[in-house]
Amino acid sequence: ASLTVAQFDAITESEAIERGLSFGLIGVLVANAATASDIETLGIKLQNETLKMLAEETNKANINYKANDALNRTPSEELSKRFKSNRLWGFSDLNDAEVKAFFEKNSDVDFIIHITSYVFTQYSKLVVATKWIIYDKDGSIVARIETKSLTELSEQKMSEEAYLNEMSTLQRKNIKEFLNMLFSQS
Predict the structure, then answer these.
(1) Tens digits of per-residue pLDDT, 123-148?
(2) DSSP states of 138-154 as a string?
């Protein structure tokens, strides 16, 4: 059986949004507008890293994973618009038409995955929570798996590169946990 990623949504936060939370919804909206490009960049970097790590980990586990860069199918303007419109409210699951359309274009795949990753800080911890929804060719949801990894943050402000490295390390743990849960059930 083969699988691939059909959609990947990443929701990240910034320090400005955290500060804005103390001023209610208006504070979040103002902070959000000020840091929109940073959040989009971080989300896209997390997506790219995750897809690369997923290919590596499935290869190590001898899983028939077909690399499929969902970001390449969407023009950057459209990606940017999706991030802007969904950042505060989250992303929706794939609907039947989207699942069927994906399988029509990718008939050599047996299962598709919709990944949603949330990155946030809570009580001096960096958290990467990822939801994995797997669909079969009939459009039925075969599995919903949620993984969460976290690490202590130092009091010092991290560089963007260090932050991305921490996110990637936590996401790799999520990928391994996802694969262990998925194939221990079969």
Answers:
(1) 888 899 999 999 999 999 999 999 99
(2) TS-EEEEEEEEEEEEPP
Tokens of 154: 């130092």
Output the six-digit token pair for 52: 């690369």
Which positions ≥6 away from 124 have C-beta within 8 Å? 152, 153, 155
Residue 129's DSSP bridge partners are 118, 148
Region for residue 97 given its phi and psi (left: phi exceeds 0; alpha: psi -120 to 50; beta: otherwise): alpha
Answer yes or no: are the C-beta atoms of 135 and 112 closer than 8 Å: yes
Smallest CA-to-CA distance from 132 within 93, 166, 90, 79 is with 93
Taking the C-alpha atoms of 86, 92, 97 and 99 in order, what is their torsion angle to the nearest 10 degrees?
110
Strands of the sheet with 125-136, listed across from one edge:
64-65, 2-11, 111-122, 125-136, 141-152
Tokens found for residue 171: 């996401």
Decide: residue 158, CB within 10 A, 0-12 exposed, 13-18 middle, 19+ buried.
middle
pTM flag (> 0.90): no
* Cα–Cα distance measured from residue 128 to residue 167, given in angstroms and rounded to the nearest whole number: 7
CA angle 50, 55, 60 (to 5 degrees): 125
Distance CA 103, CA 136 (A): 9
The separation between CA 110 and the C-alpha centre of its own chain, rounded to angstroms, equals 21
